[in-house]
Task: structure prediction
Amino acid sequence: MAQLARQYAKSFQKAGLEKIVLSVKSSNVVASLAAYRHLAAQDSWPLHLGITEAGGELAGAVKTAAGLSPLLLEGIGDTLRVSLTSDPVREIHVADLLLSATGVRRRGVEIISCPTCGRTTSDLFRILKQVEKALEHEKRPLTVAVMGCIVNGPGEARHADAGLAGAPNGSFMLFAKGRLLRRVPQKHAVEALLKEIQKI
Ligand code: SF4
Result:
């Protein structure tokens, strides 16, 4: 695959084309990784990354992350496309998350949330979904924590730009800019968090 791409690029060059970007997308993660690494080691043409026909939203995002994260972390790649059988807006969202997680570019909110356990005092899954939806279009590179308990939650919430940590009786401790602000009941927790985020 990489060999073929190089041959094409060289023939384009011979024909006088200069602005060449190579892409060796495949739906096979291992083959794609090998091809992109080969091209990056051999030549200096810009590379367009992608795992093509990756699948539905969840499976496709995982497959794309498996294939592209190693490359991005190695500094390989100049542009990328996430290909999901889903709304193109979701493809852009996954691309933003991927670039943010690999430290290539921060745009939008990074959410720190726990998996929940016996210490969880609230309906954290629902709270997290509400927070994610509300912040989906936020472009500022913020970190927001949504944590389930008062034992391990405050640490993460303090280190985030804003955060919630579950407290007794389903309430939450509200944090912003490293400070504990107050305790809020569960039904007002998301609204209170969003208000603090607006102030940042
Ligand atoms: S933060 Fe608390 S509720 Fe969440 S997983 Fe950790 S211990 Fe459990």
Q: What stands out?
A: Residues 57-73 form the longest helix (17 residues). The helical segments are 2-14, 29-42, 57-73, 88-101, 124-134, 153-159, 186-199. The pocket of iron/sulfur cluster is lined by residues 114-117, 119-120, 147-149, 151-153 (CB under 6 Å).
